[in-house]
């Protein structure tokens, strides 16, 4: 009796799970997904920026009035930088990624010079223990925020130019890690801004990983970086006391060193499921230090509760998902590395800020992207989203052009 021949399974169409499609599985080259990522970047960036202005107004108004200032001063300044940033982001989408990458050398040199002026000249100013501001007359700027973007663009540009030599470790390291990365991180550490230095190290590590560095080398560099940060922490009595307070071994006289973290947790926990209402925070009345800056997430949790917290987290997840899929579709190393570096910056810094507020990490002093008060931070993050939007739009236009060529009929067709 003849055996029944089975159909070959190679040509069978298998159903792709919805979550695989969502993260870019088989549809990572589709125009629909490219368009979706483009609009995700636009909408999420604008929503987070506007929400950030509202939270700054809520958390900063009380202390501003207590100091005899207009309660809208800080929020109006934040709104101005958010507006400028949104305009820049939307305008940058019309600049091709090939033209934006030409800013790599200029941006990293400018970042180095500005950080040098902050660290070693009278133009540098110390705020809350960190020397990370430069002031020329009434104009103040925080160069370390723009250094994050400059380092990400420079790393992506250089790794693409040397992509055929990246099998050699020295071409991976020079000049991204040394001298550019070490110089910028070193100047930031000189200014005692360890939180920003940690974010910069995340950007460098992401660039090295996406450049194809072997894990043993990455682990070695990571160990050296962590040792360097540990030395920087232990070399400062202020930072050392913060770590001891986080470990709950020494909170100082009258628990002073644990006060900020304790009040932040109290505000965060008192919001419950739905919060006490927009603008109704009680802990912003000088109970939580730096409520509009590093600890703004605690005020957000108090006013909007778990629902508000989840909303903001979902926004960041959607933004990270869009950047990941843009990198996945990219055919060039520049876009892949740039998206990875920017994603490590935004998500890594968000994780550090949330870890600080919830007590998972010591008080490091890292703002929450889009949300915390700070014109330099807002403008830098919106410029970064401009780079993302430029790549997203380029992919969308490329797919639309290829589809038009496929559907167009020859002129001599019958």
Textual characterization of the structure:
This protein has 414 residues and is mainly α. The chain has one domain. The protein has 15 helices and 3 strands. Helix 2 runs antiparallel to helix 13. The termini are far apart.
Strand order of the largest sheet: 1-2-3
End-to-end gap: 54 Å
Low confidence ranges: 1-12
- Please give the number of β-strands: 3
**N to C succession of SSEs:** HHHHHEEEHHHHHHHHHH
The profile of the biggest β sheet is: 3 strands, antiparallel
Number of domains: 1
> Percent range for helical residues?
55-70%
Rg over CA atoms, rounded to whole Å, is 24 Å
Short description:
By secondary structure, this protein is mainly alpha-helical. It contains 15 helices and three strands. It has one domain (30-399).
Properties at a glance:
single chain; 414 residues; 3 strands; 15 helices
Draw up the topology in text.
Elements: H1 18-22, H2 31-66, H3 73-92, H4 97-100, H5 104-120, E1 124-127, E2 130-136, E3 139-141, H6 143-161, H7 169-173, H8 176-190, H9 194-210, H10 215-234, H11 237-246, H12 259-269, H13 296-329, H14 333-358, H15 375-407
Antiparallel strand pairs: 1-2, 2-3
Helix pairs in contact: 2-3, 2-13, 2-15, 3-15, 5-6, 5-8, 6-8, 6-9, 6-14, 6-15, 8-9, 9-10, 9-14, 12-13, 13-14, 14-15
